[in-house]
Hints:
Strand content: 15-25%
Number of strands: 10
Oligomer: single chain
Radius of gyration: 19 Å
Amino acid sequence: MAAHRCKKLVFSSSATVYGWPKDLPCTEESSLSAMNPYGRTKLMIEDICRDMHHADSEWKIMLLRYFNPVGAHPSGDIGEDPRGIPNNLMPLVQQVAVGRRPALTVFGNDYLTKDGTGVRDYIHVVDLAEGHIAALKKLFEDPKIGCEVYNLGTGKGTSVLEMVAAFEKASGKKIPLVFAGRRPGDAEVLFASTSKAEKELNWKAKYGIEEMCRDQWNWASKNPWGYESPDTANVLLTDEYYYI
């Protein structure tokens, strides 16, 4: 990139860099303490980006800390189709709804939350895309940018059971649940402060969990086997679990 004079970079970081936060909501100044390998890799790359800018101030870098992206394009033509076992909640909920999985296993229903399940900040993928556009605009228009960090979320926490209920309402499908014990590395509650992005990027999430579930179901109902067909996908997947 440097050899071709391309020294502007947007990095897809993650809220997992906050680990198990003691104070909520998470601000960009919150302490960083990733508690799983995925979060550790994101934090390491953030450190590399900060070091690059420190060594060469011509580098202008945006570190965008995604919270939990869900949903699909409203057209229903573009959506999430993970290969193998999904690593997050909504693709698994969607696969249960279309009959590809028998049930959703929820890890942990004894957290100190409103219903005992983990709480996350879910953000519509369209809002996330518009957050990137806002970041790119500032990256090219603001000469004072160095290496900046922004949270991209809604600023609202939603529990696993609340999200499942919203998807059931949007789809008209019942999602059978199996409860299991907590998993190491999962935070109890994690949601964003988005005031910095709202002020400096002139960006704010527009959509709530109702729209996220509506658009996810629109995609899933039109494409129950994702981009494949029943002939190339497993007819019934039994390793049902999720990662939030």
